[in-house]
Design brief:
Radius of gyration: 13 Å
Number of helices: 6
Order of helices and strands: EEHHHHHH
Distance between the termini: 32 Å
Oligomer: single chain
Structural class: mainly alpha
Strand order of the largest sheet: 1-2
Length: 114
């Protein structure tokens, strides 16, 4: 199983870079996953999005409606695409399990069942 090393911490991910243990996530884990996704640093706004996504997923076991994320973190309507380029990147950095094809297709069109 692949390991990402970041600031002296080893993070277990699957072959596609998704965090193996949902509960092993913390802000350093997010930074490591972000770096692995090509983001040098996470802004406060990005971290706010990631934390909201994690809490929503923890509560409902699904990614929130994209526009609702932005509204709840008081950011512009298209904040996820503006901050992460693609919602799946935000999903991965949030330490959520690999989404199935249905979820990826829904996220590609800017929608998700809520």
């Amino acid at each position: 199983m692949p390991v990402i090393e970041y600031s002296g911490t080893k993070i277990m991910v699957d072959d596609e870079g998704y965090l193996v243990d949902f509960d092993a996530w913390n802000e350093n884990t997010a930074r490591a996953l972000a770096k692995d996704e090509g983001l040098d640093a996470l802004t406060a706004e990005q971290m706010e999005i990631i934390k909201f996504v994690r809490e929503y997923y923890r509560k409902f076991n699904f990614f929130p409606i994209l526009n609702a994320v932005c509204k709840n973190v008081h950011q512009p309507k298209n904040c996820i695409n503006e901050k992460f380029i693609h919602p799946v990147k935000a999903w991965k950095i949030a330490g959520l399990p690999k989404p199935d094809e249905l979820v990826v297709n829904l996220l590609d069109y800017g929608q998700s069942p809520g």
